[in-house]
Amino acid sequence: MAADGVTVAVERGAALAPLLGALARLRVTVFRAWPYLYDGSEAYEADYLQTYVKAPGAAVAVARDGASVVGASTCLPMAEASADARAPFLAAGLSLADFFYFGESVLLDAYRGQGIGVRFFELREAHALALGQARFCTFCAVQRAADDPRRPPGAIGLDGFWAHRGYVKHPAFTARMRWKDVDEAGETPKTLTFWMKSLFGDALPPGLLRRPGRLNTGPQP
Ligand SMILES: CC(C)(COP(=O)(O)OP(=O)(O)OC[C@H]1O[C@@H](n2cnc3c(N)ncnc32)[C@H](O)[C@@H]1OP(=O)(O)O)[C@@H](O)C(=O)NCCC(=O)NCCS
């Protein structure tokens, strides 16, 4: 259940086009904060979000308070995801068709802690199941150093939230993505750690287990 007065609906294809401005604004606003610290522009974001309009398997769960868009959560088959997201899967010899990729979830502060993030996961997993191809859902999250001075006092990460949704962190399986942090002069590469969940209780592909250092499928610290 989402918060009172807030609706969450899945939008696809051309129906997303009129929402791109609002979605771009949300990404720039929410990702500017710790831990992403992303110094983004709405113009760039609106262009990037075209991916979700064009990719045939993509969907966006859109949270609205009345007419205003207050949150969004994106997903698409891994084969349609960005080259940066696909790269570690290809390097590990995995079949992209087995994986369904969750791009990002962004929700304005005032709407957090009311179940909307849980709903985003439910809707994206339901979409992956409806498409009927992937066996695993996966997403990646930025790694920041434990002693990063920019970490706000008392900041609580989302690891517990994701673990409660059944996702397992694979610290050795990572993507590299570039962006400019708010306090940086230009873009630098960032490391993002993958999390995975089996949709049908399958073990992760055996090829993966034979690649130590690529993906650790054991219990995580
Ligand atoms: C990720 C994000 C969308 C999560 O949104 P959220 O709506 O606050 O998450 P929820 O409210 O669904 O879940 C948070 C907790 O509240 C609980 N909750 C669920 N329903 C609730 C309700 N009706 N009232 C209060 N709490 C509730 C959930 O169970 C969950 O706890 P759990 O992990 O112990 O199970 C939000 O934190 C965000 O935008 N973060 C910044 C961007 C980011 O880092 N995105 C992720 C990487 S792309």
Summarize the SSE layout with pairings.
Blueprint (H helix, E strand, L loop, with lengths): L5 E6 L8 H12 L10 H13 L4 E7 L2 E10 L5 H9 L7 E9 L8 H16 L4 E7 L16 H6 L3 E12 L8 E11 L7 H4 L12
Parallel strand pairs: 4-5
Antiparallel strand pairs: 1-2, 2-3, 3-4, 5-7, 6-7
Helix pairs in contact: 1-2
The protein binds coenzyme A (COA).
The site of coenzyme A has 17 residues, from β4, α4 and α5.
Can you walk me through this structure?
This protein has 221 residues and is an alpha+beta fold. The chain has one domain: Gcn5-related N-acetyltransferase (GNAT) (Aminopeptidase, 3-Layer(aba) Sandwich), CATH 3.40.630. Helices cover 27% and strands 28% of the residues. The protein has helices at 20-31, 42-54, 83-91, 116-131, 159-164, 206-209, and strands at residues 6-11, 59-65, 68-77, 99-107, 136-142, 168-179, 188-198. It has a 7-stranded mixed β-sheet with strand order 1-2-3-4-5-7-6, sandwiched between helices. α1 (20-31) crosses α2 (42-54). The longest helix is centred in the middle third of the chain and has 16 residues, at 116-131. The protein starts with 5 loop residues before the first strand and ends in a 12-residue tail after the last helix. The relative contact order is 0.15. Mean pLDDT is 91; it is low at 209-221. Bound molecules: coenzyme A.
